[in-house]
Design goal:
By secondary structure, this protein is of the alpha+beta class. Strands 1-3-7-6-5-4-8-9-2 form a 9-stranded mixed beta sheet, covered by helices on one side. It has a 6-stranded antiparallel beta sheet with strand order 19-18-17-14-22-23, sandwiched between helices. The protein is globular, with a radius of gyration of 29 Å. It is an enzyme of class 2 (transferase).
């Protein structure tokens, strides 16, 4: 055999079809574990019973670490190892069906063959192939019995990510692009750049059969902290030296940039970027994965299941606590069994690649069993207390005097955190609410019992906490109540009109000093710029409510707005002789609309025109207008078009051509930016026919 190098026919098309890997555009065989694939060798001379095949992976393959397998041709498929079964033979070719075990290490294998009849011959290389997880195989840890869910969570390249805030949920499209170009190779090289691989490559590769191991390692690799990973986070509101997190429309560009730069972290990301990139990598490797958005998401830095927020006497939200409540936070769920915890904790597992807190000394998070979170089993691996707090923490709002360091509790809330937990529906572009999968109904006895159980497991019940408010502070009852009502459109470019409604809950008049502020924030509610402040002294008649209209002109907030379009409005009410009342509202302003029209039928390999229209809604000219377009199977790479400046109320219409390369429903994603509006996004489903 060594004398005549055999040529290998990998039957790329047939194997890809059988293994659900047809969407990869590779000349290399890509198959899934626990399932057979066919290979034909031409030029094999000796009798086949004398052939031994060798499949090996990693820097030092060995049988001990399950990174090397040797197997001859047998008559049946092996239950728990690698095997080869003869399909057919002709005078000088041999077709065999190779099977791998359902718990094989995933990655790029070398396949070679050796003749046992001649002692001296060295193995002849047959080439390489890539082995992935197999959610279609019942023996695999990632087995997903529902076909439609496999299609969505492994094979779908388009996603919808939910954002905004709990009062006003919005969404945007994302191109995961896990099958494009060399994304698979980039994902495999990501594994070889992890801290675990650098420390001990042999052990790391031997653990790559385990989805919980890979999920945890990749949650660390997607952020740049610790390991020069893929994306560098930035929540400052200033994104000089990189791309603003809200400008990306897909993971492909980010992963390609990381590779092109010699694996330097890509600037910049925020939570949805980390989650979207992790979705791409895990779907690419065959682990069913989706993005999850949690509204009013707690970041509990000190592990006491409580988030403290501080305000000064003027009502300014002070950026002095490590704890915070984000308008929304995006993480991942991946589907696999938990042999380490037991069957009741299998199914969806939370992974979070956003660098928030260290776990085991590095910025990684999960996998935390979603069932464990719901049941308050926060003592189970991995990082359950942090995820439990994200959806359940109690909130304490304090008045803080920077001069004296004295803090006074304004009020506490146990139902604020963890609302409208959202993900994209299977097979359609809709939102599905999964809050009930994370916790029992807010305010129910079961939910409070679960919270107590979690506190107990964390040792918080019996420990005196000097920073906690006293029961008297928690039970105090205010004399007035207040809320902000929206009185007009919430759109960038329009004045912001609100009404502060104050109600006197007592039967005698109350005098109230109201200190109001409005700040632009990032979506984590971190204050960035003060926009407006005002204070009024009011008398509220007994048991009556009064309304105070507030207008913040566009000209006042326009310069200060971050790309998140978020404003936090606060009124701190000092009631004479009573306790303070904090009224606040987080407002997300909508960008103006942008429209996509496909002019004619979209057919494979035929050009079709697309028109994108945008009308400048404000009474000043907008400049630096750029249109960015991407969409798998519709165009190659990313199209960037510079659009001329638009005068007040002027409508622009931009045309470009697409040449679709495959049939079926495809998504076109558009992002429009100019000096006054950041990242106006929309997407359109294009049905491509033959």
């Amino acid at each position: 055999i060594a004398a005549t190098q055999p040529s290998t026919n990998w039957h790329l098309k047939e194997n890809a079809r059988d293994h659900h890997t047809s969407k990869f555009s590779s000349q290399e065989l890509i198959v899934r574990r626990g399932q057979s694939f066919t290979v034909t060798f031409n030029g094999t001379e000796p009798p086949e019973q004398n052939l031994t095949f060798i499949a090996e992976i990693g820097p030092k393959p060995s049988k001990l670490t399950k990174t090397q397998a040797t197997f001859g041709i047998s008559s049946t498929v092996s239950k728990d190892g690698w095997s080869a079964v003869r399909q057919s033979t002709s005078s000088n070719s041999l077709s065999i069906s190779i099977s791998s075990p359902p718990n094989a290490v995933i990655g790029r294998y070398k396949l070679s063959v050796q003749s046992t009849s001649s002692d001296s011959s060295s193995p002849a290389s047959l080439g390489t192939f890539v082995l992935l997880f197999n959610p279609w195989s019942s023996g695999d840890d990632v087995f997903m019995p529902n076909q439609a869910e496999c299609e969505e969570y492994v094979l779908e390249e388009f996603g919808i990510i939910f954002a905004g805030n709990k009062n006003r949920i919005n969404s945007f499209g994302w191109n995961f692009g896990q099958f494009q170009g060399d994304i698979l190779s980039i994902c495999l090289s990501m594994l070889d750049r992890s801290l675990h691989y650098r420390r001990d490559p042999v052990t790391d590769v031997s653990h790559r059969n385990d989805p919980k191991y890979l999920g945890r390692v990749l949650s660390a690799m997607v952020n740049a902290n610790d390991d020069q990973g893929v994306v560098l986070g930035n929540w400052s509101g200033n994104y000089d030296g990189g791309k603003s997190p809200s400008s990306w429309t897909g993971s492909g560009e980010i992963l390609q940039n990381w590779k092109k730069s010699g694996f330097k972290p890509v600037r910049y990301g925020q939570c949805w970027v980390f989650a979207a990139v992790l979705t791409t990598v895990l779907r690419c490797l065959g682990i069913p994965t989706r993005t999850i958005t949690n509204f009013s998401s707690a970041h509990d830095a000190d592990g006491n299941l409580r988030v403290d927020e501080f305000y000064d006497a003027s009502g300014n939200h002070l950026d002095r606590a490590a704890d915070s409540i984000w308008n929304f936070h995006v993480w991942n769920e991946s589907w696999f069994s938990r042999s380490d915890l037991g069957p009741s904790y299998s199914g969806w597992q939370v992974l979070d690649a956003t660098p928030q807190e260290e776990s085991g000394g590095i910025y990684q998070c999960g996998p935390a069993s979603r069932n464990a979170i719901k049941e308050g089993d926060v003592d189970l691996d991995y990082d359950c207390p942090f995820v439990f707090a994200e959806v359940n923490a109690d909130c304490m709002y304090w008045n803080y005097d920077p001069a004296t360091g004295k803090k006074t509790l304004i009020y506490s809330a146990s139902t604020t955190v963890g609302q409208s937990i959202s993900t994209k529906a299977v097979g359609r572009d809709d939102r599905v609410d999964v809050t009930n999968d994370y916790k029992y109904e807010e305010g129910s006895k079961k939910e409070r019992d679960t919270f107590k159980k979690a506190r107990k497991k964390l040792g918080l019940e019996d420990k005196f906490d000097p920073t906690a408010p006293t029961p008297q502070e928690i039970d105090q009852k205010p004399d007035i109540s207040g809320k902000f009502k929206v009185a007009g459109p919430l759109e960038v470019g329009k004045d912001l009109n609100l009404i502060l409604v104050l109600a006197n809950l007592q039967s005698d008049a109350q005098t109230v000093q109201v200190n109001m502020t409005a700040w632009s924030t990032v979506y984590t509610r971190r204050p960035v710029h003060e926009i407006w402040k005002d204070s009024v002294s009011v008398t509220l008649p007994p048991n009556e409510e009064k309304q105070f209209p507030i207008t913040i002109p566009y000209t006042e907030y326009q310069q200060q707005l971050t790309t998140d379009n978020t404003i936090q409005v606060t009124a701190l009410c000092h009631v004479e002789g009573g306790i303070q009342v904090l009224v606040q509202r987080d407002i997300t302003l909508d960008n103006p609309a942008i429209d996509i029209q496909v002019l004619g039928e979209a057919k494979v390999n035929k050009e079709v025109d697309v028109e994108v229209t945008f009308t400048n809604p404000i009474d000043v000219e907008v400049t630096d207008c750029v249109l960015q377009v991407e969409g798998n199977d519709l165009l190659r790479g990313i199209l960037e078009i510079n659009v001329p400046p638009l005068k007040a109320s002027e409508k622009s219409s931009t045309r470009f051509k697409l040449t679709p390369s495959a049939t079926g429903p495809k998504h076109l994603l558009v992002n429009f930016s100019c000096d006054k509006f950041a990242d106006i996004k929309t997407f359109k489903m294009v049905n491509v026919i033959d």
